[in-house]
Amino acid sequence: MVDASRLLGHQTYQHMNKREEKKKVTQVMSKRDGEEMKLVRDGVKRQRRRLLSRLMLTALATNSEVTKPRFMKSESCEEDHRRQMSKPETIET
């Protein structure tokens, strides 16, 4: 008959080995996943950068075609200003 304590010791040893193997496998998997995620992130960043630069270039191209001053005085404002300047100043007493 097999000694019970020896059998128990062997089972716990096997169990520990399996746990260690699992741990190693999960570490390797997580490391690989991390690297894959990094590659994906870099790819996304690169795509985003390309898209942004392309959008900026198209935006610049369209903006250069149509150049308008940001603020233009309307003619009526200028006419009002001229009228006010041409009126003689009256000093009320």
Structure description:
- It contains 2 helices and no strands.
- It has a domain at 4-65.
- By secondary structure, the chain is an all-alpha fold.
- It comes from Brassica napus (Rape).
- Residues 17-30, 72-83 have a biased composition (Basic and acidic residues).
- This is (rape) hypothetical protein.
- How would a textbook summarize the main sheet? none
The radius of gyration is 40 Å
N-to-C order of helices and strands? HH
Mean pLDDT equals 71
Which blocks of ≥5 consecutive residues have pLDDT under 50? none
Structural class: mainly alpha
Our count of helices gives 2
How far from one another are the termini? 131 Å
Query: Tally of extended strands?
Result: 0
Helix content: over 70%
Our estimate of the beta-strand percent is under 5%
Globally, the shape reads rod-shaped
Feature tags:
single chain; 93 residues; mainly alpha; 2 helices; 80% helix; rod-shaped
